[in-house]
């Protein structure tokens, strides 16, 4: 009984100290205007199509802002020489509420998710291979491939489940940054396999992932080229 009382007292003390530290350090927030200025529109090797900076139709709906309460949401859309449409979205914030599972959104937009799972994607601008969630997506008249990952105070993550713990731990450790970003990449149309054999389907998926990896690398190289853009690249 005494040992349990001691344990409870220790836990209360730890929580009290943690709360003191969590509120003792202030973390400046970014704004969407700042994010829009930091994320380039022109990208080497790609044709710019549209942007949430200049096109209101490219912005997320108000309900998304109300639910996530992020610093901001930025969208960029490009085309490449192979006829792909390539979309990039970044969401930044310092609350776990800002980082949901995008698979829910894909399903709500009538996309069917095909084999979502963890893959390590080569992005040289980020130092090499990083964990990401990759999946095929399709709906009537459209097929594509989606990829997303997160950058937080503990590094890159493929799932939002890690973010609440990372943000809390960063505050407890009094780190300089206690916020995170969500990066989403969408490619359409997906490569058409030569046949429906597992080998040909895997070959087409590999081709799409390489295309998206190249696009992601170009995005982060563009971000790294400006002082404010480096906020999205390194910790």
Task: State the share of residues found in helices, binned by percent.
Answer: 25-40%
Q: Which ranges are low-confidence, i.e. pLDDT below 50, for 5 or more consecutive residues?
A: none
With helices defined by DSSP (H or I, 4 residues minimum), what is the helix count?
6
Calculate Rg over CA atoms. Answer: 20 Å
Strand content: 25-35%
- Work out the number of β strands: 8
User: Distance between termini?
Assistant: 46 Å
User: Could you tell me the mean pLDDT?
Assistant: 87
Tell me, briefly, the overall form.
globular
Query: Multimeric state of these chains?
Result: single chain
Largest sheet: 8 strands, antiparallel
H/E topology pattern: HHEHEEHEEEEHEH
Structural class: alpha+beta
Task: Walk me through the structure.
It contains 6 helices and 8 strands. With 235 residues, it is α+β, with helices and mostly antiparallel strands. Strands 1, 2, 3, 4, 5, 6, 7 and 8 form an 8-stranded antiparallel sheet that branches. A hairpin with a 4-residue loop joins strand 4 (112-123) and strand 5 (128-139). The chain starts with a helix and ends in an 11-residue tail after the last helix. The model has no long low-confidence stretch (mean pLDDT 87).
């Amino acid at each position: 009984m005494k040992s349990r009382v001691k344990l409870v007292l220790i836990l209360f003390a730890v929580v009290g100290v943690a709360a003191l530290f969590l509120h003792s350090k202030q973390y400046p927030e970014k704004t969407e205007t700042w994010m829009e200025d930091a994320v380039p529109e022109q990208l080497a090797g790609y044709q710019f199509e549209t942007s949430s900076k200049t096109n209101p139709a490219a912005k997320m709906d108000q309900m998304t802002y109300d639910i996530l309460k992020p610093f901001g949401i930025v969208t960029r859309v490009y085309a490449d020489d192979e006829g792909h449409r390539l979309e990039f979205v970044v969401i930044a914030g310092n609350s776990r509420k800002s980082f949901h599972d995008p698979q829910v959104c894909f399903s709500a937009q009538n996309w069917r998710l095909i084999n979502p799972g963890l893959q390590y994607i080569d992005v040289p601008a980020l130092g090499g291979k990083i964990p990401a969630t990759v999946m095929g997506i399709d709906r009537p008249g459209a097929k594509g491939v989606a990829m997303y990952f997160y950058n937080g105070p503990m590094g890159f993550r493929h799932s939002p489940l890690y973010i609440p713990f990372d943000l809390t731990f960063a505050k407890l450790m009094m780190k300089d940054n206690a916020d995170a970003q969500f990066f989403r990449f969408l490619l359409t149309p997906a490569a058409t396999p030569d046949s429906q054999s597992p080998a040909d389907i895997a070959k087409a998926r590999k081709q799409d992932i390489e295309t998206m990896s190249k696009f992601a690398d170009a995005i982060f190289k563009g971000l790294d080229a400006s002082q404010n853009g480096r906020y999205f690249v390194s910790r």
